[in-house]
Design goal:
heterodimer; A: about 160 residues; mainly alpha; B: mainly alpha; Arc Repressor Mutant, subunit A; 10 helices
């Protein structure tokens, strides 16, 4: 809520507060307040002096009103060109969104497959009984015949499923 | 205060722009660019920075336009809010020595009127820069950009009473720092 200066009795203190907020521009004040200020400064010399000081102050501030020359056409073109770039960016963003869906789908499918094979007891064929993973052991020894002859993992796995 | 028909036209442009119509957005850019540039220049006191900031704000607006809800605030208030926050961010990044200005003797108006006005302009800019950021923003939004107390409060996300307080403190400081100038103007009138 704004301070309701208009409902207050106009005194020098209130006028000073009003001028500090609105400056000396009566058009910026609510109508009722502007009338009250006008009436006060017509009859009160000190009030008029204070109002004139605020008006001079406004005049000084308004010297700063002029802005430098901005090349708005160039700015608009630059913004338009950035918007064009945005068109090129959006399809990529859309493609990335699809990529996430595909990747998530593949991850979910592989998880389901793992659960399926696990439920069939295939896990027992993946280990050599010592608790060590056969694949890891094969990669350590780098002996392809060892895997084929003694740990035919794929063959055992298929046999297990059958 | 902007007319009702203008607001209605803005509303149509907003809806079109929210649906991806870049031409509609370009029309909004044309309308709001001077407003944002003015605010940015008065806050940053640098033309190039003001242009960059205005451009940045308009692009941010395009990216976030879908989240704008016309039932909550006018578009101009929303844009002012984005721009004001960007101005305050930028000011906080600036070093104090970049803002400082010298206080030379002013050439009396009788000698060279154009030079006199330039010098006063420089002094006012300097005095505005010396104000705390939020006091300056309140003064720029209310006095220079012509927003009402309520609009200024909405933009700065505070009550109208708080805006009154910011404006009063700003004018009080300026009255002191610009005293030689406004007193000179007083004497010229007599």
């Amino acid at each position: 809520m704004m301070t309701d200066f208009a409902s207050q009795e106009m005194t020098m203190t209130v006028l000073e507060q009003v001028l500090e907020v609105y400056g000396a521009d009566l058009n910026r004040m609510p109508d009722a307040l502007a009338h009250k200020v006008s009436a006060f400064i017509e009859t009160d010399d000190c009030g008029r002096k204070l109002f004139n000081e605020a008006a001079s102050m406004d005049e000084v501030l308004n010297i700063h009103t002029d802005l430098p020359h901005f090349d708005f056409n160039a700015l608009e073109i630059s913004i338009a060109s950035s918007l064009q770039d945005d068109i090129e960016i959006n399809p990529r963003a859309a493609a990335n969104d699809n990529g996430w869906i595909v990747t998530s789908g593949l991850l979910a499918a592989s998880l389901l497959l793992g659960l399926f094979f696990g439920s069939l007891g295939a896990g027992t064929y993946l280990f050599d009984g010592s608790g060590a993973l056969s694949v890891a052991s094969a990669s350590m020894t780098d002996d392809i015949f060892y895997i084929n002859e003694d740990f035919n993992l794929v063959g055992n796995l298929i046999a297990g499923i059958e | 205060m902007r007319a009702g028909t203008q607001k209605s036209m803005d509303q149509q442009l907003i809806v079109r722009a929210q649906n991806g119509d870049k031409l509609a957005f370009q029309l909004l850019v044309k309308e709001f660019l001077p407003m944002i540039s003015g605010l940015a220049y008065r806050m940053l006191n640098d033309k190039a920075e003001a242009e960059d900031l205005a451009q940045e704000v308009m692009l941010k607006l395009w990216q976030n336009l879908k989240s704008y809800d016309s039932s909550r605030a006018q578009l101009s208030t929303w844009i002012y809010k984005i721009a004001s926050n960007r101005c305050l961010d930028q000011l906080r990044r600036k070093k104090p020595d970049q803002l400082a200005d010298d206080y030379d003797e002013i050439v009396p108006p009788s000698q060279d009127n154009e030079l006199y006005e330039k010098q006063i302009n420089k002094k006012v800019e300097s005095a505005l820069q010396d104000l705390p950021e939020r006091q300056r923003l309140a003064l720029v939004l209310f006095h220079y950009q012509g927003n009402s107390l309520t609009e200024t409060g909405q933009i700065m996300e505070c009550s109208s009473e708080a805006i009154e307080s910011l404006l009063a403190r700003a004018r009080r400081s300026l009255k002191v720092s610009l005293k030689p100038i406004w007193q000179q103007m007083e004497q010229e009138k007599l």
